[in-house]
Structure prediction request, 245 residues.
Amino acid sequence: MEVIIAKDYEQLSRTGALLIAGQVVRKPHSVLGLATGSTPLGTYRQLVAYYREGLADFSRTQVFNLDEYRGVGGESPCSYQRYMAENLFDHINVSPGNTHIPNGLASDVAAECQRYEQLIKQAGGIDLQLLGLGDNGHIGFNEPNTHFPAATHLVELAPATIAANSRFFTAAAAVPRQAISMGIQTIFQARQIVLLASGASKAKAVKAMLEGPITPAAPASVLQLHSQLTVILDPAAAGLLAGGA
Ligand code: GLP
Prediction:
């Protein structure tokens, strides 16, 4: 495991983007796992800049997103599909057929989860998985739990997550109560994992992830077992670590 404490959000974003662009340069047909939320926005802006400068070519890259809200279609401004289009896909040369996200409108959720797992397997597995971190320690939408959910599955969102994500909706009442998310094993099977966390609201979850016991009560703590994990923090997110930032 490598923990990088960047001097600020800009440097955190640049470091994340360098790792992703490096992966794509090394292996143009890479399979990337990508995340949503506020944290990766700077990383995506930097990737778009690398693409425009001719430094990264995504024409052969496949992308699998971690999760999508249940009951939300791709056309909804709150969907993660729309987020990815607006913040990354529409600005780089990834082929639309190579981008994948769980279908939040699927009538048969179990079949959709199986289809998603199968697609990842057919693509050869994920080379590099980018993660954010929920204030409550979730990764993807794997909420604090009594067990580690293995494969892609339907999630009941925790009240803390609904509250945290209400800023993307008109009101907390408008936030979907469920989502389809890659499971812990799906994430863990990625050959390389890059996790970004920024801001003081993440400090407790960061400490639990890196220094606490490995427990489904702190889902990200399982990443301690991953041999190719890079955690990129800003000083505020690293603020509670032993030794500080
Ligand atoms: C959502 C996403 C997660 C993300 C988390 C943190 O719940 N499902 O993948 O990591 O938000 O978001 P933010 O980066 O906005 O704090």
Notes: DSSP finds seven helices and ten strands in the chain.
